[in-house]
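Sequence in, structure out. Go.
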Amino acid sequence: AVTVKGTEGVSKVEATGTASSSTFLRGDYAWATPAGGGLTELADFATTSGTTVTSPTLDLSTYKFLILVCNGVGCVADTGTDFQMTPNGGTVGKIQAGWSNAKVTYASFLIDLSNGIGLGIGNIAGGTAAIVGGAGGTALFRNSGLTTSTTSLAFSTTDSVAFDEGSIKLYGLK
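Output:
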């Protein structure tokens, strides 16, 4: 048996490709860049004032899916207003109906950017955080206008009621 002691520097390794801080050495002795993918937070913005809240500029060109998370989004008046989203100043789409100042929206949506189709589930609830069963509703997105070319999303209510709490997070999935 051969006993090996000591270490050798990376420059002594006979491998194809180039060693760098963004590559790794595969088992076949080739330096490679790790595969892309995963979930990336694209935006996290408050819904604490104003009648329309617009996302920061988005670059969705490298993503396949958009995940939209509403965390305690609320409004100041009890009007039974609808919560809606408008991509790139285009067609308005309803996210959730029947909303008031005593309630806030907790919701998650997954939208396929290749065809604008998506599905989500939300809950309009009051009080402190809890596990709530059977009190939510689903939302289906079709022809949503959301694509890899979408650069902004505006959120508003049907009655121009001001937001007063919560936040929205957007994630891109490759």
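Check: The first strand starts at residue 24 and ends at 25. The mean pLDDT is 82.
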